Each structure stands twice: as C-alpha cells, then as structure tokens.
Amino acid sequence: MSPSWQQRTSSGDGYRFAEVFHVDDSSDVKFCFVQYLSWGLRHNSFAIKRLRRLSSFLFGLVLWSLGFAWGGARRIWARIRRFWTPDSVVPLEGVVLVFKGRYFRKSNPLENIKSYSPSYGWRSICSARSLVNKGLIKRVGSGTSISVWEDPWIPAQFPRPAKSNGSVADPSLKVNDLIDSRTNFWNIDLLKAIFDPEDVALISAIHVGAPTKEDSLGWHFTKSGQYTVKSGYHTTRLEKLETNLNFFGPDINPLKAHSWKVQCPPKIRHFLWQILAGCVPVTENLRKRGIDCDTGCARCGAPEETINHTIFQCHPARQIWALSQIPTAMGIFPTESNFANLDHLFWRIPSEFDSSAFPWIIWYIWKARNEKIFENIDTDPIEVLRLAEKEAQLWQSAQVDLHNENHGSVDLVNRIRVRDVSLESNYSGYRCFVDGSWKGSDKFSGTGWFCTSSNGEPPTMGAANLRRSLSPLHAEVEALLWAMKCMIGADNQEVAFFTDCSDLVKMVSSPTEWPAFSVYLEEFQSDREEFSSFSLSLISRRANTKADNLARKVRTEPLHITYVNNIPQEWLF
C-alpha cells in the first residue's frame, strides 16, 4: 500500500478546495479523508461551508462504525463510497485495525481519548465525536451497566439521564434496581416515588430485556437505531431550534417556509424566498457589498432602491398592483415593509378575489426593472400585468392537465406495490392478521389480531391495550409478539402472519439492521422457533381492517383489557 495525495479543484474557477488522502490497494472497499484548505474570507463561500458541514456528518458515519466495529461497519462504508470514491482504496478491516491499535486499543472511540501526535485522518474522525455523542442513547437490556443519574438512557427529544422529582435517591442507582425481578417489568411505584412524572411515562414505555441481555449503545434519531448522514443533519438542526426557543418578536421563518409552498414555478418560489431573505441585487444591497453604483431607482428616480421599493412601491409597480385583481388600500397593501406585503399576499386576501397570479406579477415586475437597467427599455405597466396573468393562466392549466394524466397511473403504482396476492381462498394452516394502534395523548397502545383457519373453524380474535409504548412502530412490534404468543398458546403450528406495516416486515427480514429493537427481536426469534411454518407478509391497509378496528377500539378503553375469543363482541366493532 502506498499513500498519496490527490488534489481536487472546484468546477470552472480552478481554485483548490480539498485534498483527499488515500492508500492504494486492490480491495473494493474505499476509504478517504478530505482535508480542506484555508481560503480566507474572500473565498469562504456558502457552498464550501455546506461542504464542510457534510464532511462532519460523513465522519460521523466513520466514527460510528469504529465505535461499533464490526457489526454494520461494512454497510456504513458502502454509504460513504457514494460520496467519496477516489481511485485508490484501503481495506475496511485494515483501517479499523490500524485505528484501534493506535488510538483506542482498550477504550471506546466515542469517548474523549487523548492521543499522542494523531494523524490528520484520526483528527478528522474525532471532529464528529461531539455530533455523534449528542444522539447516543443507552438501550436498556438488563440495566446492570446503566447509571440512572449519569448515562443518557431516557428517550426524550435528546437522550439524557433521568430527572429526579426532588426526593432523596441513591447517587449510584442502576437501572436494574428499578426493575421488579419477579415480573421483569418496571416497579411503577418506585418510579413514581423517585422520578419526575414526565420521566415515569417515558421509562414505563421502555421494553425491558431478559436478565441476561446486555445493555447497548444506539443512535436515538433513527427508527432503526443506526446513525445516518441525514439523521446527523437533523440532530444539528434540532439543536439550533432549541437555542432559538427563547427568541421573542416577529419571526419571518413562517413566511420563508410558505414561499416554497406557493403554487408557481420553482424559479419564482426561489425569488419569493430571496425577497424575504434580503438577497435580491437591488442597488441598496449592492452598495452594502462594496459595489460602487448609483443607489437611486432607475425607473422612478427615487433616491434609494430597496427590495420593497422595487417590487411594491415604485410608481410602475404601484400601477401594476392597482390594475390587478388584488385589492389595494392605503396602509394595508402595499406598505413600506416587504414582509407585511408578502404576508398579505400569502394569507390576508379575501377569498372572493382571485390572487393566484401574484407570484407572476412579482416576477415580471422584477424583469421589467432589469429591462430598464440593462437594455433601457420602458415596459408599459398594462403589458407587464397582461403578460404575468397570461403566464399564470398557462401554467395553472398545464398543472391541471398533468394531474389528470398522472392520477390514474399513481393509483396503478400504489396498487401494484402492495398487492393482496397472498390472500387466496385456498391455503393451509392459519392466517393471522395483526395490527397496532398508537396515539401520543392516550394512556394505552392498542394491539389486535384476527385469525382464520383453513379447516373451517370459526375465526378467533384478540385485542389488548398495553402501557403506551415509545412509538407507533413499537406498538406494531408488540402486536406481532402478542399474536405469536396467542398462536403458540392455541397450539397453532402453521401460521402465516400479515401486517400493513412495511417497517415491521423489514425488521423481521433483517434484524441486525434494527439494533433499536434488539430486545423485541430476541423475543421474536425465541417465539418463532415454536412454529413449524412461519411467514410475515405485507398487505394493504384495507385488507387489514378487522385487526385495525380491534386495535383502535381497545386503545381508547379507559381500563386495561385483554380479550381473546371466537365470539365477536359489539363493543369491539
């Protein structure tokens, strides 16, 4: 293996923006480090900032795989290859062994490790440690290794230790001390005596593993429990949102968000966002950027050309708005604030007025301004308005035609993707339809199943409400496990299970891909061995209505209920 440096350049301008360190080898697995050069303030563009941020999320993948080597590491490296694929490669096993032998031989790379003269690659990986640690959560197995007051094991918005209710508690308390050894379930009375009520609800929703099950680390911000670049970005955004919670006063973020939902071409949506962000190149903004130009308005001679003046208050612009179908009134619209003007256009126009053309009016006002500056062409306001309304009408009619053409094909795609091909009248053994129901405001989660037999026996059904689990997917898993136990209890050996939850099918097919559900999956694997024939298939929601109705109905009951019978009850339907 021979190390080498490869210089990459940005497209077009020839400036160096990154160097990639890689090592030659014949393996298919590729690994690289990206070293960014210091450009200084003049070249520190928005794109480079975004690229550096992406680098941090990618190095989070590397650190995650090192912390959990070897399980899942090869798959994570395959994801990295989609972003960085230099011509030279180094084997995955070699990378992990080198780093482990030099930097974390007897420790965890996710911890703060002091190392002597670390390489650039190792420093790059460690730069993502703070990001990864923000989403780390300790998954409860037996609970023997988790400190109640120090380790992040509470599945709140960000993982954290438990919060006390103010009572005196043992500082060395472990999670297994909160579990009743006889039932292998939480000691609810003890939880209420020690913890904040919010934490009591979260803790009681955690599924406890077997006494021999080891505790584990996982990633909190994905359903599966594995780190992804997307979830790393989501974690960073959540942290920024939390820091902005104490902000008081007018907020333009709702305006910016709505600008991307306006029914118009993408280029006009982007222009609406630019108006709100203040990045339209009017003379006022050009002077702020150090460009020496006349600050006056070229169309009406106003002493200063601002964004709001150009779009709403310039004399030709005012004439266009007055001639349009959008009502104008002094002090209401247009005003001296472009935020107030766009707020009015987005939400305040009465429904009896047709305001659908306003994005095109804004766009063609801006184009008329550019024609005056760059071509010295004065466009008549009536012509600008007619062109804007015509373009709006053509675009809207095209959208209606496109919707009518695609409507049937969308239904066809959905029908093909989830077909009821397995629901044939001739089958052997038993068919069991399962479903879970979950709502964050309810006390219980609902589980339901409906079983039919090939030998003509009356169908049996089950419904139970359990303590509310952590998520809808947890409720689906619990519904399947309970249905399996009921089938085992009835000595049904050949059972085909059906669900309308695609994630549940993926989880059962690839259990190693879902470490967040390892406690459930171990229980599933143990119960699965009791069947001589077992399958789990995905069906459409409308084919699973009976189990869905059972789960929904029992979830809303105020008291704990477990019902298994072959006689339908009126209160369940």
Helices and strands: which structural class?
A: alpha+beta
Radius of gyration: 31 Å
Mean of pLDDT: 80
What characterizes the major β-sheet? 6 strands, mixed
H/I helix tally: 20
Indicate the percent of residues in helices: 40-55%
Q: What shape does the CA trace take? A: extended
The number of distinct structural domains comes to 4
Strand order within the widest sheet?
Answer: 12-11-8-9-10-13
Strand percentage lies at 5-15%
- Measure the end-to-end span: 69 Å
Protein name: Ribonuclease H-like superfamily
GO molecular function: nucleic acid binding; RNA-DNA hybrid ribonuclease activity
Keywords: Membrane, Transmembrane, Transmembrane helix
Pfam family, one: zf-RVT
General description of the model:
- With 573 residues, the chain is of the alpha+beta class.
- The chain is 42% helix and 13% strand.
- The protein has 20 helices and 13 strands.
- The chain has helices spanning 46-67, 73-81, 92-103, 120-126, 129-134, 188-194, 197-204, 229-243, 253-259, 266-277, 283-288, 307-313, 315-323, 338-348, 358-375, 381-417, 472-489, 502-509, 518-528, 545-555, and strands at residues 3-9, 16-23, 33-36, 136-139, 179-180, 185-186, 216-219, 430-437, 444-453, 460-467, 494-499, 533-538, 562-565.
- Strands 12-11-8-9-10-13 form a 6-stranded mixed sheet, sandwiched between helices. Strands 1-2-3 form a 3-stranded antiparallel sheet.
- Strand 9 and strand 10 form a beta hairpin.
